[in-house]
Amino acid sequence: AAQAPVRLSLNLLASSDPPEAASWLLCEVSDFSPPNILLMWLEDQREVNTSWFATTHPTPQPGSTMFWAWSVLRVPGPTSPQPATYTCVVSHEDSRTLLNASRSLDVSCKSPLGPGLGGGLCGGP
Asked: Where is the Ig-like domain (predicted)?
């Protein structure tokens, strides 16, 4: 039976130090069937160039008829003092709505762990 994805997570995979370098965001989606799914990224509501990210083919979850997939986005160093919001958008044939998760990356955020530690991730759930 077809099932739209129900779980979506978005995490900072690696942060840069110095902050002028790139960071990486990981978007994971699971518990969907059939495996036909589309993952894409937005930066402040604009579609991100496909050369900035890589997405896996859906993989069967062990011991299940459901699938999971992930996508990793290279976030370049800051080009403006304003934080950017990155959104992972998932479309599945069995769902009439898009599933999405967003994170704001702000290199001016200070971590209590010191410079470059804690990811500079501000906001988000």
From this structure: 25-106
Instruction: For residue 47, give Cα distances in angstroms to 29, 71, 99.
Output: 19, 15, 15
Q: How many CA atoms lie within 13 A of 125 on its CB side?
A: 8
Joined tokens for residue 70: 């992930």
**Domains located in the chain, CATH noted:** 7-122 (2.60.40.10)
If phi > 0 it is left, if psi is from -120 to 50 it is alpha, else beta; for residue 51 that is: alpha
Whole-prediction pTM value?
0.76
Distances 109 to 11, 24, 26 between C-alpha atoms, Å: 16, 16, 20
Q: How many CB atoms lie within 10 A of CB 111?
A: 13
Q: What's the CA gap between 125 and 29, in Å, rounded?
A: 16
pLDDT tens-digit series, residues 30-89: 999 999 999 999 999 999 999 999 999 999 999 999 999 999 999 877 666 778 899 999
- On the CB side of 25, CA atoms within 13 Å amount to 27
